[in-house]
């Protein structure tokens, strides 16, 4: 919304009214220099004050006609640049959308429009009198301040509602004008609205996003060529992070079109972190070099990523487990049990997990950057730790079934045999408990032995 003011309306000086958690907004926006505007902050000490009286707090900064855009609204591909207000006299201009659905109007406010005048408005109406939705973009003259002071509180909310103030002026015959807004619009009142807004924004730019597939690799010469060829057909980049393989994994990967970086890292988690840090895409996908996952499922991960910050696969759907794959009943139910433990320990975030060891996952680069410094695991514990940190960062994570195939060669470094699986489970459980109960941080697994990479 600040960018709309700057780019479409030519505004360079903006007053931001903050209250609860205002320090986070100040930290994010700063003084506005990064955005090419000058920001003034006004503190609202009482969150029950209401929008109309909140605007009064900004009056010392506003001595002429000004634009107001509410901060909890998303506008996509809007026509704000057509909002002109120098050709005729007015008290206020309100952005409206004609033909809106009833649910959206009931969550905002309804507007009665007659030609080029607004006759009346109603906040969150029960009975609709029109199909015109009122939005949170306004132009006010300084007369608005005195009108707010003269307006009584709303019987519905007990505070002075901005919609009531404008409606009262319209009924008194003051010129209140409609501005017909175009584009997509979401008023973010709930987590569902927020997720819908994210979906709309991501969907619009999705075709322009570059997809990088990261393959942690150690001695996968027999399979890496097929894996690279498979993902290269559908991704913009395949990055093979070769953890100093002793075979020809790196050469084979390059031959099939991958970008290869040979490194010397501690373990599986370390190798994936390196890949996520150095991949070039806007969307980061992690898979395996052993051909146990296929690009057939990548489309599913990407489609759900429009609605989430991270999408993770689960290998526990029996119909999608190929015969001969490393997912016997004990290993499958072990993953389910540990995943349900994560659900229980972070019940407030309402996660739904059935697999803690599935490498196949996709996330937005910005989601990775939010958790990057908090993910410490260098071995197989990296997988559940990444899931937990996404939850702690209040990011949305969705789990979907993916097909799990037999390895093209070799054996899993972390789950080949009961003893290896038990060691992996122990490392994961120690990390999970230490994340949930910080006083148990001494349980955090030690750094893994060198070259500890491969499939979980």
Short synopsis of the structure:
This protein has helices spanning 2-7, 22-29, 51-56, 102-107, 143-150, 162-171, 191-205, 224-232, 249-255, 268-278, 298-305, 329-345, 365-371, 382-392, 418-436, and strands at residues 13-18, 38-43, 66-69, 73-76, 92-98, 109-114, 117-123, 132-140, 176-180, 184-187, 211-217, 237-242, 259-262, 283-286, 310-314, 361-364, 397-401. It is an alpha/beta fold and 456 residues long.
Structure in words:
The protein is built from 15 helices and 17 strands. The protein is of the alpha/beta class and 456 residues long. The chain has a 7-stranded mixed beta sheet with strand order 13-12-11-14-16-15-17, sandwiched between helices. Strands 3, 5, 6, 7, 8 and 9 form a 6-stranded mixed beta sheet that branches. The protein is elongated.
Estimate the strand proportion. Answer: 15-25%
Distance between the termini: 44 Å
Radius of gyration over C-alpha positions, nearest whole angstrom: 27 Å
What is the share of helical residues?
25-40%
Descriptive labels:
single chain, 456 residues, seven-stranded mixed sheet, 15 helices
SSE diagram, text form:
Layout lengths: L1 H6 L5 E6 L3 H8 L8 E6 L7 H6 L9 E4 L3 E4 L15 E7 L3 H6 L1 E6 L2 E7 L8 E9 L2 H8 L11 H10 L4 E5 L3 E4 L3 H15 L5 E7 L6 H9 L4 E6 L6 H7 L3 E4 L5 H11 L4 E4 L11 H8 L4 E5 L14 H17 L15 E4 H7 L10 H11 L4 E5 L16 H19 L20
């Amino acid at each position: 919304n600040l960018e709309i003011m700057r780019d479409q309306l030519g505004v360079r000086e903006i007053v931001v009214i903050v209250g609860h958690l205002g320090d986070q907004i100040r930290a994010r926006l700063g003084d506005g220099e990064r955005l090419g505007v000058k920001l003034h902050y006004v503190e609202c000490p009482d969150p029950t004050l209401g929008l109309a009286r909140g605007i009064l707090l900004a009056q010392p900064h506003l001595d002429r006609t000004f634009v107001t855009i509410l901060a909890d609204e998303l506008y996509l591909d809007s026509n704000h640049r057509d909002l002109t207000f120098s050709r005729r006299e007015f008290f206020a201009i309100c952005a409206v959308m004609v033909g809106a659905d009833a649910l959206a109007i009931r969550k905002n406010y309804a507007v009665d429009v007659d030609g080029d005048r607004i006759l009346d408005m109603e906040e969150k109406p029960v009975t609709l009198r029109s199909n015109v939705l009122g939005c949170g973009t306004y132009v006010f003259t300084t007369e608005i301040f005195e009108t707010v002071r003269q307006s009584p509180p709303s019987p519905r909310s007990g505070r002075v509602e901005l919609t009531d103030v404008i409606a009262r002026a319209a009924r008194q015959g003051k010129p209140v004008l409609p501005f017909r807004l175009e584009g997509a619009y979401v008023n973010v009142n709930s987590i569902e609205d927020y997720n819908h807004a994210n979906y709309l924004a991501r969907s619009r730019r999705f075709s322009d996003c570059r997809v990088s597939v990261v393959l942690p690799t150690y001695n996968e010469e027999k399979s890496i060529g097929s894996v690279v060829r498979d993902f290269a057909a559908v991704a913009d980049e395949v990055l093979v992070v070769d953890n100093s393989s002793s075979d020809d994994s790196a050469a084979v990967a390059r031959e099939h079109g991958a970008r290869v970086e040979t490194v010397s890292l501690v373990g599986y988690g370390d190798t994936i972190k390196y890949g996520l840090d150095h991949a070039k895409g806007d969307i980061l996908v992690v898979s395996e070099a052993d051909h146990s996952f296929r690009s057939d499922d990548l489309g599913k991960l990407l489609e759900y990523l429009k609605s989430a910050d991270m999408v993770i696969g689960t290998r526990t759907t029996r119909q999608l487990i190929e015969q001969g794959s490393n997912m016997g009943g004990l290993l499958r139910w072990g993953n389910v049990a540990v995943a349900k433990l994560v659900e229980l320990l972070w019940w407030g975030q309402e996660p739904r997990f059935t697999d803690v060891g599935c490498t196949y996952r996709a996330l937005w680069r910005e989601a990775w950057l939010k958790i990057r410094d908090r993910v410490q695991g260098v071995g197989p514990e990296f997988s559940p730790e990444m899931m937990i940190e996404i939850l702690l960062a209040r990011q949305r994570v969705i789990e979907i079934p993916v097909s799990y195939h037999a390895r093209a060669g070799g054996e899993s470094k972390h789950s080949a045999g009961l003893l290896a699986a038990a060691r992996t489970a122990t490392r994961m459980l120690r990390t999970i408990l230490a994340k949930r109960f910080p006083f148990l941080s001494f349980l955090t697994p030690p750094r893994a032995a060198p070259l500890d990479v491969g499939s979980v």
